[in-house]
Amino acid sequence: MDENQKKWAKVYGSLLKEIIRLYAIDRPEFIKEIRATDNSLLQWLSGSRLPPDILHNNICNIVKKHISDQKNNARNNIMTKIIKDNFNDLYKNFVEINSNDIALDNKMGEYISDLLIVCHFNGKLTPQEPTKVPPTLTNIAITAPPTKTEYDIGNTLDRTGLVVTATYSDDSAKEIGISELTISKLDSSTAGNKTITYNGKITEFTVTVNPADSGTRTCIDTFEKNKKISIFVTYAFESDEYKKRVIDFTRKLREMGFDATMDEFMKREHPNIDDMMIEGLKRDKVIVILSEKYKEKADNSKNSGVKIEFRMITNDLDENNKKYIFINFDFFSEELSKKITPKLLGKRYIIFLENYKKSKFDELITCIKD
Hints:
By secondary structure, the protein is an alpha/beta fold. The chain folds into 3 domains: 3-119, no CATH class; 137-210, Sandwich (Immunoglobulin-like), CATH 2.60.40; 227-369, Toll/interleukin-1 receptor homology (TIR) domain (Rossmann fold). Helices cover 48% and strands 16% of the residues. It is built from 14 helices and 12 strands. The chain has helices at residues 3-22, 27-34, 38-46, 53-71, 76-99, 106-119, 214-226, 240-255, 263-266, 273-281, 292-299, 305-317, 334-340, 358-369, and strands at residues 137-144, 150-152, 163-168, 173-176, 182-183, 192-198, 201-210, 230-234, 259-261, 285-289, 324-328, 350-352. The strands form 3 sheets. Strands 9-8-10-11-12 form a 5-stranded parallel β-sheet. It has a 4-stranded mixed β-sheet with strand order 2-7-6-5, with no helix packed on it. Helix 1 runs parallel beside helix 6. The longest helix has 24 residues, at 76-99.
């Protein structure tokens, strides 16, 4: 062999040697299986010569058999990692020699490729990709401020329009969902910066709070008084859209200063539905949102949450008549009233909000404060 061929023969020998070592192949047994001599194997392993075609094919077939056997071996997971790691080094050696413009005849190329393919399991001649380290968060910045930055005293913070972008160590960037951000509460008495926190990174935006006039002062006083009234809003689930309507209603009460809550806001602190129900009914006021679904569950469902809660409410109605307020979001009609009123409620007065008509909502507020 010339010098180029000797270098490739050494690569072949190193590959074969690693395969025998990593698979713990017994040499005498291996020699017998491939139908060769001990001296021939030593020459192949040392790289002083290459095996003839028929013995090379035998080598590949026997190695494949050992691979198949290893798949059923308890050490397979550890073995696979060792072989894949070692394969990367062998492959680099293969590429490095090839990049030096060393001439390679077709037979040697086939020999080397065969062993590389066998070594890397069933024909995948691609080195293992290095483990990628996930990029780390380096900074957050406001790419679009909130639409509303000016407030009157007593307002709550409006996040609409706010866009915050995160930058990572690999120079990538992504927009962060508002629900993932922690934003400091609006101090409704003075202007100032609002702090945004995301995974330990901080940025700020500025809001302005207008000074109070006499009318605003009255609103503030009302707001503070409302904070002393706790409210539990209860309903029967119909759909996600209906639930959102209840959430918006509860938030509207909160914006007016009332300490209003519902299942959506209580489930983290009270994951047990019975505990949540008991805690809710302890509040100063209980607003029951009547609907056809509420009537159906209150009248017919066996041991449903609505039915149990409604029984507790009706048992307490005579003693705490003003505590319970029954409402419906829609416009009044005799037909609708019959469809939504549970049997045990009788002729109890219901406030039909008529999609938040001012006079109707004022009536509700009056009942809450009574």
